[in-house]
Amino acid sequence: MDLINSLFPVRYSAFVVSILGFIVSSFYFVASGQWGLAVWLFGGLIVLGLHDVQQKKHAILRNYPILGHMRFLLEFIRPEIRQYFIESDAEAAPFSRAQRSLVYARAKGASDSRPFGTQLDVRAAGYEWINHSVAPTQIEGHDFRVRVGGHDGTQAYDISLFNVSAMSFGALSANAIMSLNLGAKLGGFAHDTGEGSISRHHRTHGGDLIWELGSGYFGCRTDDGHFSEDKFVLNALDPQVKMIEIKLSQGAKPGHGGVLPGPKVTEEIAEARGVPVGQDCVSPASHSSFTTPLELMAFIRKLRQLSGGKPVGFKLCVGHPWEWFAIVKAMLESGTTPDFIVVDGAEGGTGAAPLEFSDHMGMPMLEGLRLVHNTLVGVNLRERIRLGASGKIISGFDVARTLALGTDWCNSARGFMFALGCIQAQTCHTGNCPTGVTTQDPQRQMALVVPSKAERVKNFHYHTLESLQELMQSAGIHDPSELGLHHIERRMSEFETHPLSELIVSLMPGALLKEDQVWPDVFQRYWRQASAETFQHIT
User: Is 534 helix (H, G, I), strand (E, B) or coil?
Assistant: First the structure.
């Protein structure tokens, strides 16, 4: 059975049936002069199938010749049929059809205009918008960037305001990684490697990389899984690596380690991660290079020195407030600061997280980002440390709102996956991704044609920032740094709205350095109970 399936995969069943039908009907037609229509029908299907496997625009058709057209048929007769057959299960479709359609349109360079106005309930609590100005501005271009690092003679990197969030090779296919990196190269933005380290596929096209170091230290580990300075230097000094990011936690499963089973550790994955082929690849729940906030600062200093002064920072989904406060106190006590911090919201996704972690562990992006931003403002470090953020950021409005909350740039994972052609089949963990995005099956990922998808990745980035530019112009804003909480309005009830500036606490500069200040509740409760010496709660 396995041999048959390897020769004729189930996804090719319609193509194989068409060939068999053509052979049988041809013999019958020659013998009796009948079934001529069947010959033409099956012959036409064979031609269609051959076209499907050779075309380079649609991964679905390359993986599912003939059968794949059913999806496009359902799209054609939308919205009623598509709504019931594709999006009837709300949990199976965490992003709305409108959001995915927006990404698909921008990735393909098509119009994303929509008739009949907003499809959102503007009277529903939680609805948010930006007020426009009667004096719109004109902004020259939308290649918005912010400088990270460059302090005290160290290197700096001018990062785009919209970048590819952390997704590892192994979680994504080789062709997906190459498409993202080539798209980043063409569009001039950054590609986060994820904790799976830098693979040969990240290097193929030379796009800018943010090298993420998780607790497994993949790409710079000793045989027993600890940090290796020598191996770190080999990757860190690569000119393609622009920044180095220590992963403390990720939004989808903060505080949870992981295991890539041995059978999935292929030669390519083993090469990238520096682990043996065929053996379990373990990501511990915590780092072995530091156990206290001060040791984390020392680790940051070491990485910065070993990398030749490249920007070094960390990513976290905020958990216990006192642990975050302890890290900030370690910055003050040691005099060492990260060049950047990426706040990953608990709403972030992954292909393999326990349900309870996805739904109920970690702080959402809004609360986490404001806590980090306010704390750095309160100790006069915000101007020195840049903030990135990720968590279901798809559109230009999502970027504008996140900038208003206090970030300097945004990362997106799902948005760029949609640009690659992801249809949310939710088979990431099975290896049977229908579009070749999250599979290591060499035949399935062949459906994802790198030059074509890279162009879509570039287009999605370009048009998203173009949308941000247009929103800012309409709001009378000259630069992304001007976006603030007062620009975003939120509906609280049918007859009550407020700007976010009235709903969200903002700390004054230096407030946490003054003992006589009245601090907001979270600071009042936990700031004095945090110590640079430990992550533990001090009573």
Answer: strand
